[in-house]
Amino acid sequence: MSRLRSVTTGVPQGSILGPVLLNIFISDRDSGIECTLSKFANYMKVSDVVDTPEGWDAIQRDLDKLEKWAHVNLIRFNTAKCKVQHMGQGNPRYQYRLRDEGIESSAAKEDLGLLVDEKLDTSWQRALTVQANHMLSWIKRSMASRSREGILPLCSALVRPHLQYCVQLWSPQYRKDIDLLERFQKRATKMIRGLEHLSYEERLRELGLFSLEKRRVWGHLIATFQYLKGVYKKYGDRVFSGVCCNRTRGHGFKLKEGRFRLGMGRNFFTMRVMRH
User: Fold this and answer.
1) Which residues 6+ apart lie within 8 Å of 182 measured at CB?
2) Which of 29, 51, 158, 261 is the most exposed place for a label (fewest CB within 10 A)?
């Protein structure tokens, strides 16, 4: 057995007590914050509408409060990992500081596994398909058997999650991005012995699978149903809005189609659902 040592800093990894201690430690992190503060474990994001000097001053005050909180709790923010992301046309692009050091701006930032850029262009997400490509190559090198019983479960567990993670948010908009994602399933189905000579559509029918594009539509409809049935009670009312209508089949509720000034709004999750 290893010797006992006193732990003076950090959180024990792999323990049940560790996350509990972390939640207790950061429970007062948003005390006195004026803007929106999003938290996930040891990550956080301060956001607000900044189109006037007063909006910039509000965010800077929150940053100063967070720095003061860190100083009281004897920790330091890693300013090298802190980034500012300016979004929207006509953004004044104010500069911010943390501990008297300027915070660099970034055109795109990875947020919980998703690449978000200042124009909300989902094409950046294509860079994350590299992991799916690595996993598919690893399966091809490691598996001697090419039976469907061995290839399909591995691809479903190791490859597909990289291509469908949080797809309701970043669903591809352009045909080149859609074809790029579909290429992975084409490669995976072609690895199965006896199906190499068939076309992609014939391989899908033989295996009882749907294309990734159809799976995304299926996922959108499931998520919409969950929102409307109150599964996400905290945000469901703000995602979809209904209009009174007596011309629907079997119910009197119809989703209201939103209006957007920019063309990018047509690709939002709520609008994609309307088209299906």
Assistant:
1) 211, 212, 213
2) 261
